[in-house]
Amino acid sequence: MMPAIDKLMTLESVFWVFAVLGSLLFLSRFVMMLIGADHGGGDVAGHGDGGFGNADLGYSDLAFEFFSLNTIMAFFMMFGWAGLACYKQYSMGAALSVTVALASGLISMVIVVYVFRMVRKLSCAGCEFKIEDTVGEKASVYQLIPETGKGRIQVSVKNGVTREIDAVSADRKEIKSFETVEVVGVIDKNTVSVRKS
Fold first, then answer.
1. Distance (Å, rounded) from C-alpha 173 to C-alpha 175?
2. Do 20 and 90 belong together in one domain?
3. Using 50, 70 and 90 to split pLDDT, how confident is the model at 41?
4. How does residue 167 score in pLDDT terms, banded at 50, 70 and 90?
5. Residue 72 and residue 14 in contact, taking contact as beta carbons nearer than 8 Å
6. Mean pLDDT, the chain, as a whole number?
7. CA 128 to mean position of chain CA atoms
8. pLDDT number for residue 55
9. Less Cβ around it within 10 Å: N or C end of the chain?
10. DSSP string, 67-129
11. How many CB atoms lie within 10 A of CB 34?
């Protein structure tokens, strides 16, 4: 009888660890999101857009989205609390408690993915930044652009939003800070080429 009791007590401890740890991590992340200290790194859509990018994801993106920091924390939290409820409250056996806990954890992961997808769909399409939209726009040099290196510019895009992006000199001439330039091309998703206007 004693080994069986020790085994169940160990299982209860595991449930408690998952429940408390998952809850603390989930709450701390939630608070960080509320105060703006969290920028979505490693999140459901950890694609560098803070989770508010393109909602049309491929299979590899879906797998990454499912196994994100938020979904794993939700799994830990629900696995622990559901397991404790089954074992302590409803006096279920160890195997059934673990089964229900696993199912609850997986369901919570699916719910978190669904919620974040809905949030992405609520984001305004006009608010999404496309670097191609900066071509032809006037900009102010924020950080000196050397002859053969990168600097930074401030450019206004749709809805009057100002963005800071990397820039190179199209003419391979140094452009000093605070000068006005025109965006003449896109180098990559983070960099444009500019010329003095």
1. 6
2. yes
3. very low
4. very high
5. no
6. 79
7. 15
8. 40
9. N
10. TSHHHHHHHHHHHHHHHHIIIIIS---HHHHHHHHHHHHHHHHHHHHHHHHHHHHHS-GGGS-
11. 9
The boundaries of the domain holding residue 191 are: 131-196
Specify the pairing of strand 191-196 against strand 162-169.
parallel
Determine the residue type at 108: S
**How is residue 132 written in tokens?**
């191609």
> Structural domain tally of the chain?
2
Burial class (CB in 10 A: 0-12, 13-18, 19+), 125: exposed
Question: Burial code of 35-71, b = ≥16 C-beta within 10 A, e = fewer?
Answer: eeebebeebbbbbeeebbbeeebeeeeeeebeebbbb
SS3 151: strand
Q: How confident is the model at residue 11 (pLDDT cuts 50, 70, 90)?
A: confident
Q: Among 76, 105, 123, give the residue marking a domain's end.
A: 123
Residue with tokens 């800071």: 164
**Given pLDDT bands bounded at 50, 70 and 90, which one contains residue 181?**
very high
Q: Which residue has the tokens 């509320």?
A: 34
CA distance 160 to 87: 57
- Nearest by Cα to 96 from 10, 8, 1: 8
Are residues 110 and 26 part of one domain?
yes
The pLDDT tens digits for 53-73 are 344 444 445 555 667 888 888
Out of 97, 123, 149, a domain closes at 123
